[in-house]
Structures are given as structure tokens and as C-alpha cells.
Amino acid sequence: MAAELTLTVNGEPRRTAPGSSIADLVTNLGLDPKKVAVEHNGEIAPRSTLADVQLGDGDVLEIVHFVGGG
Amino acid sequence: MTDTSADTWTVAGRTFRSRLIVGTGKYKDFEQNAAAVEASGAEIVTVAVRRVNISDPKAPMLTDFIDPKKITYLPNTAGCFNAEEAIRTLRLAREAGGWDLVKLEVLGEARTLYPDMRETLKATEVLAAEGFKPMVYCADDPIAAKQLEEAGAVAIMPLGAPIGSGLGIQNRVMIRLIVEGASVPVLVDAGVGTASDASVAMELGCEGVLMNTAIAEARDPIRMARAMRLAVEAGRDAYLAGRMPTRRYADPSSPLAGLI
């Protein structure tokens, strides 16, 4: 079994199991994938593909949502 | 009297009755924010795109209080200081929301929050090419407004005064010139402080007004939201009705004939 992957999620280090998809990560964080958008290594990860994209060691993710603003 | 119920406006093919767009920042809590939106009658709210707090994923979200199926969310790039950041933010917004109507705002400096028009124009071109429908916050510059329109802006949104200042419409002449020259909707964005300011914007012929702080920082935001709804309606009606000319001297309203 390979070692856990180290990711950077919203600027913070995070570990996840090898073979995880983006959807797995989002769900494990306790988030609803329908309410967030994900940027994966600088590229938009379309919601329809979140379950298909496997994470790699050192990947950088931004997970955003809508908040109050002017 | 003219039927005002049919007085709608259209941006990028979407038609709205309310001419008031409200922000969702600076409120005490989500409940107050939702109540203010309700009182304002707004059909569009601006929202920001920010990182999810992954250490508290169950924290209440804006979407739990203001239903994006009933109210159009207009993602905004507030806080972006160059074209690249703004474009990145709106690509994420489109993925989060699934719609292409967005508000572009590229700021030049923190002190005035005045728009950087060079970066704004650059971002407008890129966004339009990617299929976005950008409503664009801009300087009160009629030439820049035309350039934005040519670049693909679906609405021109000049500031009335600095963002959050509440100083009112400082630049009536330029706002009117922008309205006259534009073939897309013009909305005053920023600077409104109180109800009469919103009326002024509408009397200048703007299609609508966008505000946040004037409502959120009022002592009673819900009452102010209602005041703004009425002010926008009043200003719009006054514009459509066509105001009387101004005169230098008095003109009596009662007939002079038959005076005893």
C-alpha cells in the first residue's frame, strides 16, 4: 500500500488515501459537492468529472463557494 | 395612468421587474440579510466567491438563506486587483453556480477602490470570449464605457461615488452621458447612501441601481431596503414621466384671471 498523498487544500496541508478522487476528498471534508467549485492545480475541475479525477501527491486544490459580498 | 407593471428591463436576454440589485455583504447575520433582500424586492443579489472554511464545513451558508433558484446570484470579483485574479474567480463562480451572468470588478487600489480600467477592459474581452456575460463596474468615463461595450460587456456599471462611501451620485453629467451613449443597460454601482441618491440615479435614466452598504449599514437595514425599493420605483417613474423644465423665477400655480 502506497503512503498517503499530501495535498494543499485552500492553502493548508492535508493528507488523503492514495486512489482518492476529488469527489472523495470533498465528501470527506464534509462538503456538499453540489455547493462548491474546485480548482485543481490551477485548472477548473468541472463538477461532472470530480469523481473521475484521481488526486496525486503534491496536488494543489482550491475549494470555493458563494459568500455574502457587494 | 400608465401601467407600470410591464416596466421591465433586460440584461443578456434575462428580463427582470426589479431595478434594484443588492449586495449580501456586511449584514449582522444571514437572517437579517435575507429579510433585507425580501424587503428590497430585488431579484438579483451580488455574491462573492471565497474559500470554503474546511475546518468548519457545516457552518451555515448563504445559499441556505437566500435561495439561488428564486433569486439570481450575480457572482462578483470584489477584492480582485488584476484581470487574471478576476477571470480565475469568475471561472470558479461559473462552476459553482452554473450560470454565465457575472459582475466584473477589477480594483485599482485599496484606498479608493476605484476601478483599474486597463485591467477591467482586458478581463472583459477574455470573459466575453469564454462565453461569460459580464456586467462591468467602471469609471464614470463615457469613452471607457463604449470600449467596454465593444469588448462584450452586457451592462455598464459606473460608480456614483467610491464603494461604501455613501456620498451619493457625484457625477450626474457623466452618468447621463454614459446612459445616452450606451446600447446596453447602465446601472449605477456604488456610492448610493440614502433613498434620494437611488432616485437620482434612476432619474438620470439608468436601468437600475446596485447597492450594498447603504442598506446593510443603515440603523434599520430592512426599513432602508424598503425605502430603496420605493426610491428606485419613484425615480424610474419620474424619469418615464418626464420632469418639468427648471425656471429661474417663480410661476404661479393658481390662475391670475378672476383675482378679487
TrEMBL record, chain A:
SUPFAM superfamilies, per database record: MoaD/ThiS (SSF54285)
Annotated region described as Disordered, given as residue ranges: 1-20
Organism domain of life: Bacteria
InterPro entries attached to this UniProt entry: Beta-grasp_dom_sf, Mopterin_synth/thiamin_S_b, Thi_S, ThiS/MoaD-like
Pfam families listed in its UniProt record: ThiS (PF02597)
PANTHER family linked to this entry: SULFUR CARRIER PROTEIN THIS
Protein name in UniProt: Sulfur carrier protein
From TrEMBL, chain B:
Name of the featured protein: Thiazole synthase
Pathway: Cofactor biosynthesis; thiamine diphosphate biosynthesis
UniProt entry tagged with the keyword Repeat: no
Enzyme Commission number(s): 2.8.1.10
Primary location class: cytoplasm
MF terms (GO), sorted A to Z: thiazole synthase activity
Gene Ontology BP term (one): thiamine diphosphate biosynthetic process
Active site: 103
Residues of the Thiazole synthase ThiG domain: 11-255
Subunit structure: Homotetramer. Forms heterodimers with either ThiH or ThiS.
Domain of life of the source: Bacteria
Gene, per the UniProt record: thiG
Binding site for 1-deoxy-D-xylulose 5-phosphate: 164, 190-191, 212-213
Record's catalysed reaction(s): [ThiS sulfur-carrier protein]-C-terminal-Gly-aminoethanethioate + 2-iminoacetate + 1-deoxy-D-xylulose 5-phosphate = [ThiS sulfur-carrier protein]-C-terminal Gly-Gly + 2-[(2R,5Z)-2-carboxy-4-methylthiazol-5(2H)-ylidene]ethyl phosphate + 2 H2O + H(+)
Entry's localization field: Cytoplasm
The keyword Ion transport is assigned to this record: no
Endpoints of the signal sequence: none
InterPro entries recorded: Aldolase_TIM (IPR013785), Thiazole_synthase_ThiG (IPR033983), ThiG (IPR008867)
Gene3D superfamilies recorded: Aldolase class I
GO cellular component: cytoplasm
Role according to the record: Catalyzes the rearrangement of 1-deoxy-D-xylulose 5-phosphate (DXP) to produce the thiazole phosphate moiety of thiamine. Sulfur is provided by the thiocarboxylate moiety of the carrier protein ThiS. In vitro, sulfur can be provided by H(2)S.
Annotated keywords: Cytoplasm, Schiff base, Thiamine biosynthesis, Transferase
A Pfam family that the UniProt record links to this protein: ThiG
PANTHER family recorded: THIAZOLE SYNTHASE
EC category: transferase
Family statement: Belongs to the ThiG family.
